[in-house]
UniProtKB/TrEMBL annotation:
UniProt protein name: Flagellar assembly protein T N-terminal domain-containing protein
Matches recorded under InterPro entries: FlgT_C, FlgT_C_sf, FlgT_M, FlgT_N, FlgT_N_sf
Domain Flagellar assembly protein T N-terminal: 30-114
A Pfam family per the record: FlgT_C
Native source species: Litoribrevibacter albus
Lineage summary: Bacteria, Pseudomonadati, Pseudomonadota, Gammaproteobacteria, Oceanospirillales
Domain of life: Bacteria
Amino acid sequence: MGEQRAGESMWRVLTISVLMLLSVVGWSKTVTGTGHAQIEGDLEFAKDLAYRRALRDATLQANVRVTSTEIANNGFITQDNIRMQTNAEFGEINVVSEVIENNVVTLKVRAEVAPEPFCTPSKSQNYNKRVAVLGFSRQKMDEATLGQLDAIEREMPQRIALTMSSYGGLRVQPATHIGIYPDIINAPSRTMPDYTVAELSRIGRDLGVQYVISGVIRDMSHKGNYQREELLAQPLMDLVLGEEQKLRRISVDVYVYEAYSGALVHRTAYSDEGNWTENEFSKAGFGTQNFWKTDYGFAVERVIENISQDMAMLMNCQPFMAEILQADGNQLRINAGALDGLRPGDTLTVYRTKEHYEHPFRIDASMNRVETTVRVGQVQPHFAFAEVTGSMPVLQIQMRDLVVAW
């Protein structure tokens, strides 16, 4: 058996600046990293090397993020445009475990990471974005049986929506009763008619939001997945196999869609792990007090916090959009008001959405600028009136056109 020791007494808390690949996060977030090093005579050198490797792993966990615009062929994503940035800062770093086994030292660190802002200030940041968080799907249905965590499909996105609301600049609407992936393994690819771009656009308009967030829970596996007949031997197996066998993983893919065109604008994978210390017959349930007190509950909470932070910062970088509800000559009524941050005198640009019927099972949509601006006049809490500035456009403004601030 390896030698288990408390790592915090051997390592002082550090604050350092490093160059790293950066995500879209604008606030500090907690990440974990693991490093291994072979002991070749000098134990302290091996520890230092393992520590550095753990920091590198934490860097990757925190900062490899893909932000993309969907390019699809027959409903399948074929290309993502990746954006990355350098320069971020580690805050508090703690060594949470140190194990020496088979002449190898293994360190696990937990660190706070505070990257610099991803996007430059823009006009769109003056407005509150409306966002819907849909229910998440589970790729492996049986993995939630342990601890009766089936409620994760609704409770996890519900908690994400609540946490996102705390950052400001957003109007977040939980819609966890709605799911959009019939083919969970290949999500977000969609080939069925009911789950085309038109369906996402319909969901967005029904909910009155600009962006739709969905997700797939890919992994909730437990390293101690013993068969039922082995349960009576569980205490003995715990003694023989050690704590490592109690580790349980949480892995989630998150997707963000622009509601009016249905385009996929962002996709990111999140993962963490923690010890599942409840017994095999536990009915802890997802989201209960007992669940959040477990080490695995803390790991899930970290993932929720990281998703919420990423999504809040991403929304801060996206354009503000609102639908035109009524058009009468150069007088317009738009589906955004004071609660969205609109003020009299604001100017917005008009866009038109257009659907392209590629084949019976695929509908794509695009946004085209009408080369017209409008000036906001009277503002109500939930809607506002605006007037076309200058001469009337060649294309007549109509219902379901959009006003946009970049």
